[in-house]
Design a protein that fits this description.
By secondary structure, the protein is mostly helical. It is built from eight helices and no strands. The protein has two domains: about 5-85, Alpha Horseshoe (Serine Threonine Protein Phosphatase 5, Tetratricopeptide repeat), CATH 1.25.40.10; about 90-180, Tetratricopeptide repeat domain (Serine Threonine Protein Phosphatase 5, Tetratricopeptide repeat, Alpha Horseshoe).
Length: about 190
């Protein structure tokens, strides 16, 4: 199979067979779900990827914990799918949880924490929360200056994003249409 889209029917059959033979929580089934969700995302089939990512996030959270690197990568992917498909409240909620987890586990200055903060700021902006976005962009700029210096690409991006939100220049970004809110699976809340 030369194109990822050609693999989708094959991967769907593999997942179905594993679920029937091994059960939905078996590690081989979970891996098959991960592969199918990644292929859906890669081919732009975000609505098809979403339920698999939601299920995968729950399975990984239970099996490995919410701070596991695979669990966090799956949560990042799901948050991006939410954001790209207009499920902005779910994207904000998941990105807020990711920032809290990474800040607690990795520390506030870790590059993954800094990236998550910027992604959350972008999501706030897309969700028409410019003050929240500006606050996080300001924090991102302060951190990037301290950690990387004034000429690092992350510093330049943070400076530009902060200036753009202050000037309203990001208003030409495409915004996803409003979607009705639904209850979606979440990372389990641990701690205060």
């Amino acid at each position: 199979m030369e194109r990822p889209a050609d693999a989708v029917p094959h991967l769907e059959r593999i997942l179905d067979r594993h679920e029937r033979a091994l059960g939905p929580a078996h590690p081989t089934t979970v891996e098959a779900r991960d592969t199918l969700a990644a292929t859906y995302r890669h081919t732009g089939q975000l609505e098809a990827a979403r339920p698999h990512l939601e299920r995968l996030l729950g399975d990984q959270s239970r099996a490995h914990g919410v701070a596991n690197s695979r669990t966090l990568r799956t949560a990042d992917g799901l948050a991006e799918v939410y954001r790209s498909t207009g499920r902005l409240p779910q994207a904000v909620d998941l990105n807020e949880r990711l920032l809290a987890i990474r800040g607690q586990v990795l520390g506030p200055r870790h590059p993954d924490t800094l990236t998550t903060r910027t992604v959350l700021a972008d999501t706030y902006h897309q969700a028409d929360r410019p003050r929240d976005a500006q606050r996080l962009y300001r924090d991102a700029l302060t951190d990037a200056l301290r950690e990387y210096g004034p000429f690092h690409p992350d510093t330049i991006r943070a400076r530009r994003s902060l200036a753009d939100t202050a000037n309203g220049a990001l208003d030409d970004r495409p915004r996803a249409p409003e979607q009705p809110q639904r209850t979606e699976p979440r990372l389990p809340h641990h701690g205060p």
